[in-house]
From TrEMBL:
Alphabetic keyword roster: Signal
Organism: Streptomyces kanamyceticus
Signal peptide per UniProt: 1-30
Example GO BP: arachidonate secretion
InterPro entries membership: PLipase_A2_dom_sf, PLipase_A2_prok/fun
Pfam families membership: Phospholip_A2_3
Record carries keyword Mitochondrion: no
GO molecular function: phospholipase A2 activity
Protein origin, superkingdom: Bacteria
Record-given protein name: Phospholipase
Amino acid sequence: MRARNVLSKAFATVLTALLAVAVLPGEAYAGPASRSVADVRGEADRIMGLSRLDFINHDHIPPFDWDTDGCTFWPDGVFYEACAQHDFGYRNYGNHGSTHLSLSPTEETKAWLDERLHNQMRFACNENWPAGSASHTSCLAQATIIHDALSAGIGKENFF
């Protein structure tokens, strides 16, 4: 009988606590399921605005798809971080992410993501080699080749 009383009191305590939390005024938990599309888009825009190095060190928060294959068919090298951020963009703004967010599957958004990749790759070149060196020139040329291929439609099926 004593065990029954203890269980009843424990149940009553838990129930009271749950009810109190449910009816207390204040801000509700804004988990991924309750976030508006505009809030999720704003957070994705903020993440895409990070430098490639800040992006790589960012916590992998929901509801985003953080999967990456690096630079896909190009050796990652100094471009890995930029390619990972570009993958984040394609997977969350486009139609092919595992989370199916499809935040903005438009030509304009794809062009923005591709240009962002190009800029981040150029930053990587500038940070790794002296301007005018053969390695720097080669790196910038590779960044342009990748960007031009994306602009010409290579990999388009990974976005739309």
